[in-house]
Amino acid sequence: MGFLLTGGSVFSNGAFHTADVAVENGRIVSVSRSLPRDNQSVIKLDGLFIVPGFVDVHVHLREPGFSYKETISSGTAAAAAGGYTAVCPMPNLKPVPDSLETLQPELDIIARDAKVHVYPYGAVTAGEQGVFLSDMEGMASHVIGFSDDGRGVQSDELMRTAMKKAKALNRPIVAHCEVDGLLIPGGCIHDGAFAKAHGLPGISSESEWRQVERDIGLVRETGCQYHVCHISTKESVDLIRQAKSEGLPVTCETGPHYLVLCEDELQDEGRFKMNPPLRAARDRDALLEGLLDGTIDCIATDHAPHSAEEKSKGLRRSAFGIVGLETAFPVLYTQLVRTGLVSLELLVDRLCLRPRRIFGLSGGEISPGAPADLTVLDLNRPHRIDSNTFRTLGRATPFDGWLVSAAVAATICDGELVYTDFQREDV
């Protein structure tokens, strides 16, 4: 059954144009002004904006193994509410998906419960233990790429071998970069002014960028497609910018929180604790510069839900990780677009278009024949973020209580309306 989106401003060919969008059987069938109604259901979007569905290439859906934190059902419901039509969950699960046999339980739950497209990662190493390679060949046709997210692969030789194998399998290595030998016991926040003032053990910037540096050297050797997770330091930006200038197949992401927050905003609460941590203002500014000049390809949330108890122990003892799927767009639009720091078109590129190109996902153009994976945005919807209304099981976000100026009004995945908020009353 089809429907018609009328009167919206449609993102196409890098710009917005007023047009109607007709959807039928999961695909876009026509994009034009004043399309005929033809007894279709009509959704009036006057004053709203239609963009390709957001893609988050870095989330944690926690199932199987940790469903008290999140489930694929709750996590993809949160994704839909955040405007995402595709998410890529990391493999720090139980069992760790390090072979087709251990991946299959996750695939089965995705097929049963997912409300949006889910493209899982397989682990780089067996059990994410960093000792032996996983069965990359057995998983390759079922995963979007390979990652040991949460842990850096410490062995140069093992990472070199993984890159060679990933290249042969035409899959990217997606790396959490962290040198264990540069970490100190109990490190919980950036090794900067706040840590020193409050007597907290810090996490050095070097622990991230040294491994980025090593891996780029390995990319020069192997030619592997390589994507860096959640970069947080100025040095990482500089290294990736240089790698791109050499023509190396290197891409990266950062998170909304690293673009709009720094250690100056820290509070001694678990909702401010994530890995990598919020760094110095110079790092935040360098990330924004990297976003503007194209060094940073994607904005990914690293959505990492935990139980309330796990996040209730302050900066020192809470678990690492915050939720982000339901706050990313309103926060980014309010803090970056409305303030004139970036354009809406650039934000759409980093949330929708580049992630699809890098990871080979379909869609990205609102045109006849394309999948009907669409996000409808209301750019004039002031409201306060309230974590108690989230669909995710997690509640820990540094943005709780923030006043934002925009919202996701609807999400359409495979031609189905998986989220709507047209009638929400905001305060």
Structure commentary:
The chain is α/β, with parallel strands linked by helices. Helix content is 29%, strand content 20%. The chain has helices at 72-81, 100-113, 136-139, 156-169, 193-198, 206-222, 234-245, 256-260, 281-293, 314-317, 328-337, 344-359; strands at residues 3-12, 15-24, 27-32, 41-44, 49-52, 54-59, 84-89, 117-118, 173-175, 189-190, 202-203, 226-228, 250-254, 298-299, 374-378, 383-384, 403-404, 407-413, 416-420. Strands 1, 2, 3, 4, 5, 15, 18 and 19 form an eight-stranded mixed β-sheet that branches. β6, α1 and β7 form a beta-alpha-beta unit. α4 packs across α6, α6 runs parallel beside α7 and α7 runs parallel beside α9 (281-293). It is globular. It starts with a strand and ends in a 7-residue tail after the last strand.
CATH architectural type of the largest domain = Alpha-Beta Barrel
Q: State mean pLDDT (0 to 100 scale).
A: 96
Counting structural domains, the number is 2
Largest sheet: 8 strands, mixed
Q: pLDDT below 50 for ≥5 consecutive residues: which ranges? A: none
User: Could you estimate the helical fraction of the residues in percent?
Assistant: 25-40%
Number of strands: 19
The CATH topology of the largest domain: TIM Barrel
Share in β-strands: 15-25%
CATH homology superfamily name of the largest domain: Metal-dependent hydrolases
CATH class identity of the largest domain: Alpha Beta
Shape: globular
Q: Tally the helices: what do you get?
A: 12
Distance, first to last CA: 36 Å
Q: Helix- and strand-based class?
A: alpha/beta
